[in-house]
Design goal:
By secondary structure, the chain is of the alpha/beta class. The protein contains ten helices and 17 strands.
């Protein structure tokens, strides 16, 4: 009995093994896929069905190629018409009293909801200590159009009486068409000049032209979350074991920070994230990161996150308060003026004051 099935790809009939995904069928038929956006290649950064960057038309419907199974007689179209609306799995749409690394520090010290946040499924990293793993690897939720998500976010911001609207994840930047359209829709629904549209990101694919496009669409705040300045550290924290790819991600993220601070300082609030847990990154490297950032702009807000046991790294020990105070001092010693640290007692601000007692749910990143 034949184990092959017959499908059609872009008008050409072909035989493929039974039971494989659309992505694999495309690869077997000479289509290129990649983990970094490339021309003439299908971008497949998460491969868990969350981001829909890899979406193609399957029997006329948009479906993520990485998790959709083929069946006999299927028709696949890889070049999507311009008017096809992108989709992505997002969830949340709720008030947030802490914010992310790109939330201005003075707001974090207020005892109220300061943002509404939505979380995008799918990530190109595989951080063993992922703090949002339940959202990141979600593959079965509703895939929203940008307009649908923007309408829900606008309603949430009214409900929580805040003018800041954040998208986090997962990795929010993976599906570029979706994100740019979402930011544009949000801006159109919230034309008030006080409305802030905040993108939390690992910045690993945030190229200069992508930043320009997001700012043009209406992004006002961004939180690039850097994962060290040495490749070894980056690989340890992110779980991206393909070294050339990891290096590319890391370089893109640092370049994105530089580009944002040098070109959009007045227009976009940028707050940079730095990880800390002594099992993952040394104090010396944290200081090096501080020196690099201080050279770019000593006034940039830097927020250090105390990495705790989570997901597959349950043996990590959450840094103690005094360790985070040491991190704070080291970073201030590099000339950085706006350093805050997330600690077991709440956030420590630039002047070493602590917000002990602030309602403290899971920070976004
Ligand atoms: S790569 Fe397929 S959904 Fe993200």
């Amino acid at each position: 009995m034949s184990r092959n099935i017959s499908i059609e790809i872009d008008g050409t009939r072909t035989e493929i093994p039974k039971g494989i995904t659309v992505k694999r069928a495309l690869e077997l038929n000479g289509y290129k896929t990649s983990k970094y956006p490339e021309k003439d290649s299908i971008f497949t950064p998460c491969e868990t069905g969350g981001c829909w960057s890899c979406a193609v038309q399957v029997d006329g419907e948009l479906e993520p190629a990485c998790v959709t199974t083929t069946k006999d007689g299927l028709t696949i179209k890889t070049s999507l018409p311009e008017d096809v609306t992108p989709r992505r799995i997002v969830s949340g749409f709720s008030g947030h009293p802490v914010g992310g690394v790109g939330t201005p520090w003075w707001l974090k010290m207020e005892r109220r909801y300061i943002e509404t946040a939505v979380f995008a499924a799918g990530c190109n990293f595989r951080c063993p200590q992922c703090q949002n793993w339940d959202i990141t690897y979600q593959s079965s939720g509703k895939a929203y159009t940008p307009r649908e998500a923007a309408v829900l976010m606008t309603a949430a911001s009214k409900k929580y009486e805040v003018d800041r609207m954040a998208i986090s994840g997962g990795e929010s930047t993976l599906n570029r068409r979706w994100l740019v359209q979402y930011v544009r829709e949000l801006k159109a629904l919230n034309p008030d000049e006080n409305a802030r549209i905040h993108v939390d990101t690992n910045a690993s694919i945030l190229t200069e032209d992508y930043i320009d496009e997001l700012v043009g669409a209406g992004m006002t705040d961004v939180g690039p979350d850097l994962k060290g300045c040495h490749l070894e550290t980056f690989v340890r924290i992110t779980g991206v074991e393909d070294r050339p790819l990891a290096e590319r991600y890391q370089n893109t993220a640092w370049k994105a920070v530089k580009y944002l601070l040098q070109n959009y300082k007045e227009k976009v609030f940028t707050g940079v994230g730095i990880p800390y847990n002594k099992k993952l990154i040394s104090l010396r490297e944290v200081r090096e990161m501080g020196e690099k950032l201080s050279e770019i702009d000593p006034e940039v807000q830097v927020c250090v996150l105390d990495y705790r046991p989570e997901f597959k790294r349950l043996t990590l020990i959450k840094p103690r308060y005094h360790e985070m105070i040491e991190v704070h001092k080291r970073l201030r010693g590099t000339g950085l003026k706006t350093v805050l640290c997330q600690t077991e007692r709440g956030h420590v601000g630039p002047e070493l004051q602590c917000d002990e007692g602030l309602p403290h749910p899971q920070p976004r990143k």
